[in-house]
Design brief:
mainly alpha; DNA-binding protein; DNA binding; DNA-binding
Length: 147
């Protein structure tokens, strides 16, 4: 499914990005990743911060391509993650891992399932990799949004 198809079925909306907004969201992702690395926080809070950084990177990919998710529609996190190959050129195998973390987040948020240290470590690693990838993609494809 293309981004245009998702726009037509109201999963995405048009969005006009500006450099200041992109830079604010990028800085927020960096802060969340830093917070997720604080050992004194609970595993759940570290996981939440790392997952938030993942979502912020996914939003950056959408914004940089002139879209945003329709947050009034259910499944906007899933949409943002699943279009990463189209927005940031992320490989499909990476998306599978990120989507598994999204499902893990839902179990924690909506059912109270505990988050293990191993899951926190995986989420931290994935968030760090995606943030690095996002920065490089923006520099290569939308450098004016970083100026």
């Amino acid at each position: 499914m293309t981004l245009e198809n998702l726009l037509a079925i109201h999963r995405l909306q048009r969005f006009e990005p500006d450099a200041a907004g992109i830079q604010r969201l990028l800085a927020a992702a960096e802060r969340n990743l830093a917070d997720a690395s604080i050992p004194a926080l609970s595993a759940e809070n570290r996981f939440d911060a790392a997952y938030k950084a993942i979502m912020q990177c996914a939003m950056l990919g959408l914004w940089a391509n002139g879209y945003r998710t329709s947050t009034s529609q259910p499944g906007h996190h899933q949409t943002a993650i699943q279009v990463l190959p189209k927005t940031l050129g992320l490989p499909a195998d990476a998306v599978i891992v990120l989507d598994a973390l999204r499902k893990r987040r839902n179990l924690n948020d909506y059912e109270g399932d505990a988050v293990s240290d191993a899951v926190v470590a995986e989420c931290l690693q994935q968030a760090g990799s995606l943030l690095t990838h996002t920065r490089k993609w923006l520099q290569a494809h939308r450098p004016t949004l970083l100026a």
